[in-house]
Amino acid sequence: GISFRIQIIVKEVLDTDVLLKLLFHLPVNYPSTLPDISVNSDQLTRAQCMDVKDKLLEQAKKHLAEPMVHDLILWIQQHLKDVIKQSATVCNEKTTLSKGTSREDDIWMLLLHLDHMRAKAKYVKTVEKWASDLRLTGRLMFMGKIILILLQGDRSSIKEYLILQKTSKVDVDSSRKKCKEKMMSILCETEVQSQHKRFQTFEVKEYSTLEDLQKEFETAGLTTLFSEFVPPLLK
Known about the structure:
By secondary structure, the protein is an alpha+beta fold.
């Protein structure tokens, strides 16, 4: 499939203009399959952005099997104010319900392997920002030449992270030109189980030995995950 970004300004929402940053990923069999959509805005909260995304996906279902991106953009320009108002109205109700219905199996975990980082400082800052924006916790781990990203959070946020990781220019090539991540491997994507420890923050950590890295996984109840996926990376 293909991915592309669109930025639009919607006038006079919440007494200000809102800049919406939309990322569409069109699968190979689009439009027979719905696109993945990511929504970001400095003027909106993360919850409001998620509500906008949900509404766009609802509209997308009405246009299944026909080109829809242009229609979706026109729709959100016309209805953003209503979506935000509705989001504010149900916000407290959702918060109350979530306290009673939150379940461990609603949380997902993702383990990624990166081949290298040429522009390490910039790359690390980008990953930290994405994790913060999407409310993901976990670790960015360096051990020798091994680079791993372990994330925990809502499944929708995990999917959004993957889209960003695959489509954004996060590194530089051998000519120092900005480039996308082309050598990333998804080692594991699964639900968090009861024996797994939940990370409370996202941290960048470096380990001097494989044993130190293994202890990080063991502390989090992820011994099996480590044994299955990490040692083969040394071969």
